[in-house]
Amino acid sequence: MPDSVAAFFDMGGHGLYVWSSYFIALLIFAWNVVQPLRRRRQVVAEHRRRLTREATVREATVEEGSE
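User: That's the sequence. What structure does it adopt?
Assistant: Structure tokens below.
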């Protein structure tokens, strides 16, 4: 057990390397969670727009055929 909190964070002079590695790994893990969620939201929005556009075209085609 380290003698103090400062010694724990210093890690025998290797603290900067160790903690920056942990930070970078945490960023990568967060990116791997957030990015698929963002992409899913984009895909759903694109499909919703496409379906709305197709429904509008279909309605216009039906209206033209009834005239």
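The two ends are 86 Å apart (CA to CA).
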